[in-house]
Write a structure and sequence with these properties.
This protein has 17 helices and 21 strands.
Length: 458
């Protein structure tokens, strides 16, 4: 049986089933840039789908057995049903098939210095920060991000240097397919428990990921679960970051300007490394930026290049992404889909100079919603008004009968509205000049942000 690395090496044409996915389109972009012929299909159009199409990939709307003809390798995600006509056809034709995470693992091994960014929260932002620094420093990295980096208006690119910066996702242990030179652990929280079962298992999984690093392990010393995950590891030197003097990388004199933008002095091994001014709001981004600085430094960026890159980085797509001000109302879109992330995002928003902050939240997956009903209600209570839409189940079936109204029933500031048109009508009728409307969720809530922007600008 050929390994993923051997399958990738022998292929010339690679077909992606679900090419518009945030974890698929960057891989398609990287392989296309490396000279592979790329084809793909998806159920519906999206920004990612249109971008790979514009890049020259042959893409089709809808799944059809004919789409895989001529492919040497078919790539699919865990979300795709094995009865998908393209996978059935690939099997019948004897075309090798690879799950997306295995392909990513194989791609990471084609670069001598892969930086794997793991953590329950902040992966996309931190991967984007490192990418921005290395791109501006002309270090030409390959990039794989779960969100769009505005600097390149893409989720991925094939660099010509030794470095690949890669978001490493813990979902179903996918990141264990990687062999990073540098492993980063930002934080460890209770998520994906329908797979992991317990927080202890989550911690153990992150420890396994770090144990696969061949160069260095960068970890958040301010996060107890992360410290537990890397305890006793001897495979690579440990590099710590945090707010205590004993950390290798340390943020001191942290203060906030314009409400929520951090300015601080970054110390490395007890010496002042660089004054840092962040271009993204929120206290949580101080920690993300320290991890980014530590990684960029290992990749050869100078102190000035690190400071400049962090100052110029204003967020990744769907990570506190300012869409603009329409009819006096500012709209920001964010991927926050776990209570911890909602608290961080709304906490940053509330410190910005807006009259009122509206949260529009689309719960993502039934199991997560049921498990965190009370925490979602508490987190959303930080907004002046919180609108909760129907749950996007993704690959799940609603066996428990959980409903979004169960969240708003626990709140004094909660409004349940089933769909995006209803939300758009409500915001158009109630939001006022000087307000901030923040859409949040791991699904397609970004479409609602655009609908509201269009309506308000009219």
């Amino acid at each position: 049986m050929a390994t993923p690395d051997e399958l990738l090496k022998s292929a010339k044409t690679v077909h992606f089933v679900g090419i518009g996915g945030s974890g698929m389109s960057p891989l398609a972009e990287i392989l296309h840039a490396q000279g592979y012929a790329v084809t793909g299909s998806d159920r519906s159009e999206s920004d990612n789908f249109n971008r790979v199409k514009a890049m020259g990939a042959r893409v089709a709307l809808g799944h059809d057995a004919n789409n895989v003809k001529g492919a040497d390798l078919v790539v699919y995600t865990a979300a795709v049903n094995m009865e998908n006509p393209e996978l059935v056809a690939a099997q019948a034709l004897g075309i090798p098939m690879l799950e997306r995470a295995k392909l990513l693992g194989a791609i990471t091994r084609t670069y001598p210095q892969t930086v794997g960014v793991a953590g329950t929260h902040g992966k996309t932002t931190t991967t984007s920060m490192i990418s921005q620094i290395l791109l501006e420093a002309d270090l030409d990295p390959a990039i794989f991000i779960g969100g769009r980096l505005p600097l390149i208006n893409a989720n991925g690119r094939a660099g010509h240097g030794d470095v690949m910066v890669c978001e490493a996702c813990e979902f179903m242990d996918h990141y264990l397919e990687m062999t990073p030179a540098v492993a980063i652990i930002l934080n460890v929280d209770a998520d994906h428990l329908n797979y992991f079962g317990t927080l202890e298992n989550v911690i153990r999984s992150f420890g396994t990921f770090a144990s696969q690093a061949t160069g260095q392990i960068i970890y958040n010393a301010a996060d107890a679960n992360t410290v537990k995950a890397v305890e006793g590891l001897t495979n690579a030197p440990l590099i710590s970051y945090g707010f205590e003097d004993g950390c290798d990388w340390c943020a001191k004199n942290v203060r906030f300007e314009n409400g929520s933008y951090a300015v601080y002095d970054l110390y490395y091994k007890g010496e002042l490394f660089a004054p840092i001014a962040l271009g993204v709001p929120g206290e949580h981004n101080v920690q993300n930026s320290m991890a980014a600085a530590a990684a960029a430094h290992l990749c050869g960026a100078t102190a000035q290049q690190i400071a400049d890159g962090l100052a110029h980085f204003t967020g990744a797509g769907r990570r506190f992404e300012f869409l603009g001000t329409f009819g006096g109302v500012t709209i920001v879109d964010d991927y926050a889909h776990h209570p911890t992330e909602i608290v961080a995002t709304l906490g940053a928003a509330k410190k910005l100079p807006y009259k009122r902050v509206w949260a529009v939240f689309q719960p993502f997956t039934y199991t997560r919603t049921e498990r965190h009903l009370h925490e979602f209600a508490e987190a959303l209570a930080l907004a002046d008004t919180a609108i909760v839409t129907d749950i996007l189940g993704s690959r799940e079936v609603n066996t428990s009968g959980v409903h979004s109204k169960q969240i708003t029933d626990l709140m004094t500031n909660g409004v349940y509205l089933p769909d995006f048109p209803a939300v758009t009508d409500y915001i158009a009728a109630h939001a006022q000049e000087g307000d901030l409307v923040l859409t949040m969720g791991g699904g397609d809530i970004y479409k609602c942000a655009r609908m509201m922007a269009k309506r308000l600008s009219e």
